[in-house]
Amino acid sequence: MKARPAPKRDTHPVRRFILASTLTCLGAALSHMAYANTASGTYQQFCASCHGKNLDGGLGPSLIDDEWKHGADAASIAKSINKGIPTAGMPAWERALDANQVRALIIYIQEEQKRAKLSKKSKASSTGGVYKSELHNFTVEKFVDLPGIIWSISTLNNNTFIATIKDGRLFTITNGKAQEITGVPKVWNHSQAGMLEVMPHPDYAKNGWIYLSYVDEISSMLSSKGMTAIVRGKIKGNKWVEEQQIFKTDESFYLSGGVHFGSRFAFKDDYLFFSIGERGRQDDAQDLSLPNGKIHRIHSEGSIPKDNPFVNNKNAYPTIWSYGHRNTQGLAIHPVTGDLWETEHGPRGGDEVNIINPALNYGWPVITYGMNYNGTPMDATTHKEGMEQPLHYWVPSIATGGIDFYQGDAFPKWQNSLLASGMGSQELHRVSINDKHDAVTGDEILFKGLGRVRDVLSAPDGLIYVALNPNGGAPGAIYVLKPAK
């Protein structure tokens, strides 16, 4: 068979110039369309001419200061955008912008407000090494370095801490010296997957059980998949021994994506609560037949409680306690009420604080206070019947990690406050709660800019320990907050 000749290249200079110019213009047009659909693009198109390119004011007032005559909360901003302010010469945009665009624009403005406020503050708001908060002054001192990304910290007793390293390692720390524990489960160290939570059983002093969550992997020639799994074991002579599988899904539930594994623990009596993120498949969070996007409850030895809310539903995963969660990376039991508190990642904006109750739907992805990471609108729906509202949410996101309730004598005015870590924001927050312990009354940033805060621990010695990782990831270190005058 005679070979087909290769097509001739058009060498005509004018035609080649026209083609190249057309492709360049088309690419530019597509890029402009994509930008125009983002929140920042919407702002530049509709708002910048009056409020300034950088939101700092012009014909109209600044949007990044604290002087909002018509309200700075989300509902007030939405009203101003939609209905306009005729007396101030601001037009109504409700016919030009849909509800999703307005919601994304509000998030963008709130992000810029916070960015402007933080730029006026010092990196960590400290003077001479002393941090000044609303109720206590304190120092932040390095406790120990660890050779990797620290994911979780806990205590085994008054003298010994334990920490996981995301790449699959486990360390104990005694008298400031770290010792690696060998023989731990092999993990899938991929993207957000790896060795995750560590926590001793409440009766550890008697039974010696330590619990680990990690991402278990199955692989083939074509791909690797993983899912959150839980084991418990004991440490003897710096070795992980007597391992028992506590939770593991059927491999049919394993997914190839490398995000949103959840994995935090909370113990209450003989029950173990744990989280699994929706693994980047947001609609799965509403599907009761799937384990991802849920908070689960099992007995400490791994059996399923007979009074779990969906245990008798043949179409539901039996360990589910609550659903509609994006990626829960904070769980803690309130020391007074015994309620289960939770923090979870929103998308861009909308990280949440919730009290978790059985069988309830926490809304993701149907309702959210966030938008897509690329700045495009997601959905304007923040409320829906049958779905729970958060007690508190962060816009912009702080990328919340581990949480703990403060219990101790070193900072008495912080008693029962919720300590919440922020990775992306590099912040440690103190969330204050009302006397009934069922509502958030304030949110204070204790420090900022020292590194990605992955976990926080109220330790038996009354001090507060935090896992800090640099933006590059590793190595990390545990720091301790101590009272100061």
Shape: globular
Quaternary structure annotation: single chain
Number of strands: 26
Gyration radius over CA: 25 Å
The main β sheet shows up as: 6 strands, antiparallel
Strand content: 25-35%
In DSSP terms, counting alpha (H) and pi (I) runs of 4 or more, how many helices?
6
Structural class: alpha+beta
Q: Ends: how far apart?
A: 91 Å
Mean pLDDT: 90
Point out poorly predicted stretches: 28-33
Helix content: 10-25%
Spatial strand sequence of the major β-sheet = 1-2-3-26-25-24
Q: Could you characterize the architecture of this molecule?
A:
The strands form 6 sheets. The protein has a 6-stranded antiparallel sheet, with no helix packed on it. A 4-stranded antiparallel sheet has the order 4-5-6-7, with no helix packed on it. Strands 8-9-10-11 form a 4-stranded antiparallel sheet, with no helix packed on it. Mean pLDDT is 90; it is low at 28-33. The chain has 485 residues and is of the alpha+beta class. The longest helix has 24 residues, at 13-36. The chain is globular, with a radius of gyration of 25 Å. A hairpin with a 6-residue loop joins strand 22 and strand 23. The protein is built from 6 helices and 26 strands.
